[in-house]
Amino acid sequence: MLVARLIRIAWAVVVGLIVLAILIVVLGASQSNGVVNWIHDAGSWLSSPFHGIFDIDNHKANVAVNWGIAALVYSAIAMLLIRLTAGADGYGRFGRRQTVV
């Protein structure tokens, strides 16, 4: 249960940064702002394996699609890991101890 919770937290941070970075690009936020720049760089780094999957002429659409795919893939992997680890401690969905026969 603890491992699943840690995975959930990591997933929220990673996907949250990518989505914020997409919004920064699509909405045209000022890159000269330190916080905006840091979020953009973090989102770009996290989504870097997915850059160039689609080559769309519009830069904003290109970022939204490719980085969005990164967020979806990270979400799918996180959900799989959460499902695999959530029951590893022997407790069921509602916190009751499960008996394995």
Structure overview:
By secondary structure, this protein is an all-alpha fold. The protein has one domain. It contains three helices and no strands. Helix 1 (2-27) packs across helix 2 (34-47), helix 1 runs antiparallel to helix 3 (59-86) and helix 2 packs across helix 3. The longest helix is centred in the C-terminal third of the chain and has 28 residues, at 59-86. It is flat, with a radius of gyration of 18 Å.
Topology record:
Elements: H1 2-27, H2 34-47, H3 59-86
Helix pairs in contact: 1-2, 1-3, 2-3
Which features does this protein show?
mainly alpha; 3 helices; 101 residues
How helical, in percent, are the residues? 55-70%
What is the overall pLDDT average? 89
Please give the number of β-strands.
Answer: 0
Structural category is mainly alpha
> How many DSSP H or I helices?
3
What composes the largest sheet? none
Instruction: Calculate the terminal CA-CA distance, rounded to whole Å.
Output: 21 Å
Rounded to an integer in angstroms, the radius of gyration calculated over CA atoms is 18 Å
Strand content: under 5%
What would you say about this model in short?
The protein is an all-alpha fold and 101 residues long. Helices cover 67% and strands 0% of the residues.
